[in-house]
Amino acid sequence: MATQQPSSALRAPASSRPYPMANPGYGKRSAPDQQPRCSADFMLLPLRERHIAGFIDRLPDGAAMDVKGLAKQLPLYGQQAVGSALKALSVAGYLRRVRCLVTGEGGQVRWVFRTFWSRTARVNEWWGNLVGAARRQPTAVEPVVVQPVAPVVPQQRTPEPAPPVPEGDSPAYAALARLGRVDARLALSAADCAVLEPLAAEWFTRGVDADYLVQALVAGLPAGVDSPVGLVRRRLTDKIPPKVSAVPLPPAPGTPVRRVMMECTKCGVPGRAEALPDGLCRACRVPGREAQEAAVELPAERDVRTYVAELRDLLKAP
Predict the structure, then answer these.
(1) Domain end marker among 191, 220, 238
(2) Distance of CA 23 to the CA centre of its chain
(3) Do 114 and 132 share a domain, yes or no?
(4) Quick check: is 124 in a domain?
(5) Can you tell me the distance from the alpha carbon of 118 to that of 115, in angstroms, rounded to the nearest whole number?
(6) Are 154 and 147 in contact (CB under 8 A)?
(7) Is residue 258 domain-resident?
(8) Which tens digit of pLDDT belongs to each residue from 130-155?
(9) How far is CA 289 from CA 271, 293, 295, in A?
(10) CA-to-CA distance for 168 and 156, rounded, in angstroms?
(11) What does residue 102 show for φ and ψ, rounded to 5 degrees?
């Protein structure tokens, strides 16, 4: 008798009432170009983060994403555990907190807070492009289309340093030469790298680096590659990222003004995307801060004694 393999992601618990929704314009927002759901989703994450990620992934857009609300729906974890899990998911590239300053009809100005969620882990550059696209659009947050990259987990956030570029070789040529070392199915000859170098160089003119290019080319390879040079040529053409204008376009007269910035997943401090790598500010990236915060939250010894004394009095009561 065949045994059904359990899914790595936690299914949303059955409930007689729908999940609490945020105010209009707030809450969860799904990122574009996510891969279809499968049993391997979030498999590389720790158990707690995997369960919470599976729960969030099945929430509808507009659902409340505050720590307190999530903890009420996840009986296995308290608010501190949920907050730590959201921080880990931000580091892994699955979510970012964003705030938008919106000026609507009648000149009313208000901040709108959203949590962008991606089932496919993204790198910092991808999230920066998403926030940049939202900043340039005056009426609605329509994310920029960027091809997915390989999932990144907290333990693997620091990539291995790229080998030095030999003197005379361009960054595009060096990135193509690295492909065979990352995945043998894309091993290219020196002649192949020279032919494909102009196509790869165009990627660098659009603001990406060698690591981004390599990850985009090796992600989701088929089981067998008959022609590495043909496949790489096709991907260099089809998956090239969009051009990002250096000068933002001014809004049309009478259009509502929108200001968009990222905020730290842990403490909520706002900032530019490049100042919040992994969605965290500098203070929240310091190792050991959570342990320090937990130690501060522990009750004092006299508070414990008072609490025990009150319990004893209750037991003595008739």
Answers:
(1) 238
(2) 23
(3) yes
(4) yes
(5) 10
(6) no
(7) yes
(8) 877 766 554 443 333 334 444 444 44
(9) 20, 6, 10
(10) 31
(11) -110, 130
